[in-house]
Amino acid sequence: MTLEHSQYFRTPKPRPIQPPKLHHATFMTMDVDAMVAWYELAVGLQPVYYAAHAAWLTNDEANHRIALLRIPGTHPPIDKPHSAGLHHTAFEYPTFDQWLDNYVRLRDADVRPVVCLDHGMTMSMYYADPDGNGVEIQIDVFGDGGLSKEWMWASQEFAEDQVGPQFDPESLVVARAAGLSPEEIHRRAYAGEYPPAQLRTVMTFDDPWPSRIASDPSLLDGVGYPATEEA
Ligand SMILES: [Fe+2]
Questions:
Q1: Cβ-Cβ contacts under 8 Å for 80 (sequence gap 6 or more)
Q2: Cα 49 to ligand 1 centre (Å)
Q3: Of the candidates 63, 173, 195, 205, which lies 20 to 30 Å from 56 by C-alpha distance?
């Protein structure tokens, strides 16, 4: 067969998709300072550029991972927990002990998770930033994205329950101090053996805006435009 008669000559193969990697998320905010301080404390993000109107933050090799924009005209969200849009961003530790140490560090700084869930493939602590955006801090219990992905795709457990049981992070600290392995702690958490004293019944984050507006009603005016701020 000559080249001209080849299927591949007449119908070129489709170009394989070379997917780009997820790089950063950008939030609109009314208080750049509060957000920068919180993300630095919670997950070690540091400003690469920081001004009153915007900041770009990173905690790894990327030039930024989270950006914050204080855009003129921005106003408080209405019913933030039930507004369509972002639910949470997520950060991952490579080891169980680093992850648990971060919980203790934040607890001692009085920053506590809203809810903690053993999803089966990750153990996840969910925090809320000052604007009410969720921030998940997790470990992959498989320690391997491929195995983790396979479990989500193929397991009966995930097909039946995509959330998993809540756990009390203090119980994990006690269990680890008592010498239980991360694998054993995950097994027990996923079996629901470390329930929190108070189960959270909703998968939304609390709305910080009503109390913020109560203490500073001028927030309702929104972020001013440069021309009106000068006037
Ligand atoms: Fe998540």
A1: 131, 132, 205, 207, 208, 209
A2: 27
A3: 205
Q: Where are the domain boundaries for CATH 3.30.720.120 in the chain?
A: 22-74
Contact predicate 22/61, CB 8 Å: no
- Distance from the alpha carbon of residue 60 to the mean position of ligand 1, in angstroms: 19
Contacts of 144 (CB under 8 A, 6+ apart): none
**Measured between alpha carbons, how far is 3 from 5 in angstroms, rounded to an integer?**
5
| Each residue's pLDDT tens digit, 167-185 | 999 999 999 999 999 999 9
Neighbours of ion ligand 1 (CB under 5 A): 90, 136
CA 90 – ligand 1 centroid, Å: 6
pLDDT of residue 1: 59
CATH 1.10.510.10 applies to domain 22-74 = no
Q: Give 54's contacts (C-beta < 8 A, 6+ positions apart).
A: 32, 67, 68, 69, 70
Pick from 192, 186, 195, 188: nearest CA to 96: 186
How far is the centre of ligand 1, averaged over its atoms, from the C-alpha of 71 (Å)? Answer: 27
Burial of 79 (0-12, 13-18, 19+ CB in 10 A): exposed
The parts of the chain modelled with pLDDT lower than 70 are 1-3, 228-231
